[in-house]
Amino acid sequence: MVVIPSPSTKCLEGQLTCKPKIDDCAIYLRWKHCGSVRPFDTLTEPMSEPTDSSISPLDSANPRALEAYATVEARYREDVRTHLQEVAARDPIFRHLMESTPEEVQKEQQARATALLEGALRRGEWEPYLADLRMQGAIYAQMGIPTASWYQILSEFRAHLTMKLAREPGITVERVCTALEGMNWVADLGMSQIIEAYLSTKEASIRAEQERQRQIFAGAPDAIITFDQSGAVTGANPEAERTFGWSVADALGRPWHELLFPDDISGAMAEVVNDNSSTGIMCSGLNTQGRRFDQLIFPLELTVVALPRGDHREYCAFIRDLSGQTKAQSDQRLLASIVQASTDAIVSVDRLGTVLSWNPGAENMYGHASEEALGADFWTLVGTGSHRPTWLVEPTDQRREIEMVHRRRDGSRVDVSVALAPLCAADGHTIGTALIARDIGERIQAAKALAEKTQQLERSNRELQDFVYAASHDLRAPLRAVDHLSSFLAEDLEQVATGDSLEHLALLRRRVQHMSKMITDLLEYSRIGHRQQAREHVDCNTLVADILNAIEIPSTFTYVVKTRLPVLHTQRAPLQQVFANVLENALKHHDRQDGRVEVSAQQLSDQLYEFTISDDGPGIVPRHRERAFRMFQTLGGKEKPHSSGIGLAMVKKTIESAGGTVELRESPAGGVEFVFTWPTVPG
After folding, report:
1. Which helix (H) or strand (E) holds 334?
2. Stated pTM of the model
3. Residues 462/464/466/472 CA torsion (nearest 10 deg)
4. Is the CB of residue 594 less than 8 Å from the CB of residue 557?
5. Which residue(s) pair with 235 in the sheet?
6. Residue of 488, 531, 506, 508 lying closest to 657 (CA atoms)
7. Residues 423-448: pLDDT tens digits?
């Protein structure tokens, strides 16, 4: 038995750096139990099974030879062990094994190996002995110990023990041959078990490595294409199919340069591997253009490697699609130019608040040059107190905007609105904060000025309303008195006054009534837009019908609703006032008793409707239509007690206060077409 230290678990934990590989020596191993011969250069193929599984290597054992060998092995055990250790020490791998294995472990291994061998030779307990040898073979394979080293040890073992037997005094030739037969049988059996486990482990390792390489090949982010010396494609990974748009089946056998590149550069790309018998990198990182299956041209980066394959060469092309990278670079350049051109301060800081970037906008706002700011503490540069803000101390992944006060280099303060966003690494991990600071000093001043103006306007409106109310109350009181006095005077003079005098008194009363209506309408006009009412669902069909029922309409006069009117969610009173005023005006200002008024509506959007009220009356001259909406304007030329000249002005203000528009047009019948829009709130 070969007695050298067995590889221990400690050795397998990194004391040897040999990687498993196929031995390059062409040693044929003889398998006594199956009679097969197997060269080492065919280890990539599964090992053939024995032709007769019923044959056991123990069936050929010679008990007398084993007994003779057991006696010799026990007699010369220590001498052989010492000699083999000297031989093993000359081999770098075995020397490392012995040096890295503690002496007590070596003694324990030797004692165990001796016990197993004696159990097999003297008591026929072969399975524990063979199992231990198979374990050693598997460990040797994992450590990459070459078979040449084993055979060197085995040869020295046989030669040394043979010499010991040959020199033993009084031993017969028959005894020597019997002992040697036992020695060779045990040695061959042991080596067969070791090599069987070795090869099985190697094959498993090779299969695992091939599967790993297959997965790497299939999962590579770049397109990988292989082709032979003639340029014919021999394989491609899934990324190549995605990049170029064809299937591997379509690509196999086609010239690689014609398949991958546009016609104008195909020939030049073929020359990359032509007339070159060397192996290794043919080209690396070559930026050129590729052609997809749909003829689309795109930028790519090409690396070609020549690999030896027997007496031929095989090529592997690694292709990276740069179209997305080009766009990303373009986007980065665009973003960088925006950052540089921005008048806002754009700054990035790490999780400790250290400035990582500082654009020209930040230089202008804070007065610190980029060279001064980079690497400095942000809050030390611009902070207005010792208390650091929470977002600077504990960056989060929340986007938000806050208003605060910063400090310039000269000590002055600036009001800023700061937009905050997490600064993330490529893996999405938050590494700091990006911020955009905008000077809002002018906005704050404008807001303060606007607030003051609003207060002044509200105060003026209140004063105006108070004035209008007081004026209307104070004016209506004497007007009522004049009206009453003129009425009394008319009654007193009814029997003695002439017709002209009575007509003058009647005219006086009409003027007083006209003045009273003007005052009432003026007060109503001042209140438009100041009275907020609850919104409700208003059916315009019912609203118009109620208004027409309240108007004294001659039997010969016609009102027609041409289309179904909508139901609006709005304030009822203002809309009712608009319809009532316009519908009454169409009757009051018509020049015939058989006039016709048409009402229609159409939807302009989800929240806006347009209403049209058209008549066939005398109409309004185009140059006077805008005047119709002015206060105290009457276009008829005849003063009427029921007309104050404020009605259409009130209508216009009511519509515009609700968010609509109004205009006058000429109707198809030659009269006036009153068109206005009215918003509705969803709900």
Report:
1. helix 323-341
2. 0.38
3. -150
4. yes
5. 226
6. 531
7. 888 777 888 889 999 999 888 888 88
